[in-house]
Amino acid sequence: MPHVLAIIVLTVTGGVLVIAGLMFFLRPRWLLDWLKGMAVFGLILVGLYSLVLAVNLAGYQTLGGMQTVATISTQREAEQIWRVTLQVEGSAPNERTLRGDQWQMDARIIRFTGPVRWLGIAPAYRLESLSGRYTSLEQERTAPRTVIGLSEKNWPDLWQLDRKFNFPFVEGVSGNATFMPMRDGATFDVRISTSGLVAVPVNDQAREAVQFWDQ
Prior knowledge:
Radius of gyration: 26 Å
Shape: elongated
Distance between the termini: 59 Å
Helix content: 25-40%
Number of strands: 11
Number of helices: 6
Largest sheet: 6 strands, antiparallel
Order of helices and strands: HHEEEEEHEHEHEEEEH
Number of domains: 1
């Protein structure tokens, strides 16, 4: 848009908006009705937002400081095929099969700011998935993948909505994944804080796997 035309469009738009605003003061009843309508509309928006928060928090767990949320043990069944035992805090052990050289756990974390935080609502987390990874980039692109869902999907998804639209008073933390090499007999604790996930080796096999992996 040419510079002069832009000035004309902005001037006309501004003039129309100012005149429209002044019309409310010439007829106070319009102004009062408009204010009432905006107040009702605001209440509806706040109510809907509260309902979205409530629906999503029902599928999350309270996060308070660094805490252990799961234990993962691996047993080799065949080349790049592993039997993985997942023990989530408060649940029975769950055995699944993963393909690859490493396991990866993903989680979603929601932190709150402003008025929502003032209400004392603590940060919340949800374990999202457990999957296998390959060391080889070529295999990672072409080999069969194993992804195990660890939670049910919520709608509307507050974490996803915040990532796209930057919702007020909510922060959907990104990059919440941890991964470790799979080794026969290795056991890891998965811990979480408001910064994300971290995996900690808890037996000799796991420590050896990490030591060899880092070399």
